[in-house]
Amino acid sequence: MAAPSQDLMSTMVSLCKRRGFIFQSSEIYGGLNSCWDYGPLGVELKRNVKEAWWRAMVHSRRDIVGLDASILMHPKVWEASGHLAGFTDPLVDCKECKERFRADHLENLKKCPKCGGQLTEVRKFNLMFKTFMGPVEDASATVFMRPETAQGIFVNFLNVQQAARLKPPFGIAQIGKSFRNEITPGNFTYRTREFEQMEMEFFVPPAEDLRWYNYWKKMRFDWYVSCGIKPENLRLRDHSKDELAHYAKACCDVEYNFPFGWSELEGIANRTDFDLRQHTEHSGKSLAFFDEESKQHYFPYVIEPAAGADRAALAFLVDSYAVEGEGKDARTVLRLHPAIAPIKVAVLPLVKRDGMPEKAEKIFADLLKNSVRSFYDHTSSIGRRYARQDEAGTPYCVTIDSQTLADDTVTIRERDSRAQYRVASGAVVAAVTEKLKAAIQ
Q1: Is residue 158 located within the same domain as residue 53?
Q2: Are 264 and 405 members of one domain?
């Protein structure tokens, strides 16, 4: 049976450190709050999440292309987008314990929820990280770490449209780091100050915005299900009018039932033509699209599915976690979808003698040669090795045993069912790649 919901997050933090998914940043110096490092398994998991997103959003479509814009941008970009003036959270401090809180997260704006002390008046706090470009640290050299990847897409709208020879409806996708100086980060990797976004801006004729908005709501919900998340742990929640950003005509969140409750996994917004008009006004260069058929210029509306790679990776980990059995027979397993599992195949010689390691090494080399992410392990009992791979989320194990020496067959063990069957050693790569291909499609 699974760990109780209230304890699941602490369980995941422990598992992630022990197995090399995620470590506290700068841990030997006491750590840095809300900053995390992805270890050997974690970096593969997150990379696979990003590749699955890119495959679904770009490589499998003819109407979306990619972009990799700079993290540092001209300061006027953030003036035009409204981030300089409006990208703020309400902040209060406790006069006694000096803790800081988001005012909109408190029921009582007079009393500190931690020590009972008096709180300061509410003030606005800009979430953008500020730095300086060049050797002189003055106002003229101020630049900002981007708080979102979207603006790099908007300012490159015509560059991409003309270079790729596209016309609306079409999209521009980007994966990259963003930075927000959150007042109250927390819940492991859910809310951090440095994070990675997977965003796509889909430019449509204004009259088609509703159709495409509904289309992307369904597509993005279905993507999480196709990558292994249980549908009952997902929901779509439309924003009320008082929740909408000033630029949005409509917005909907794909929410996941995290151990700490239902929370946003991805947002799908109808940003109208706000961004292209703003950058046109502030830069003096028109970002309107010229339609050859109607011989008219117009500003496309934008439908924006914006997801977090870190939040997605966390959701996949939480959703896949299970403990089966009880006592000494219990096993911990991550039922990660093969597309995002860090390791696809573990190669395990039963013992370190009788030619088994040599046979195993050859199979391992063949898997790597065919770009199947694999792991070789010859230490401890076979049961312990299976348990380690279950806990790492590895879908398949290949065991080389005494029968291999007699008939040149090996055992393939499946993680979820624990079913075992034998195939010829020379057929391992084909058997595994066929299963992985079927699962990923």
Answers
A1: yes
A2: no
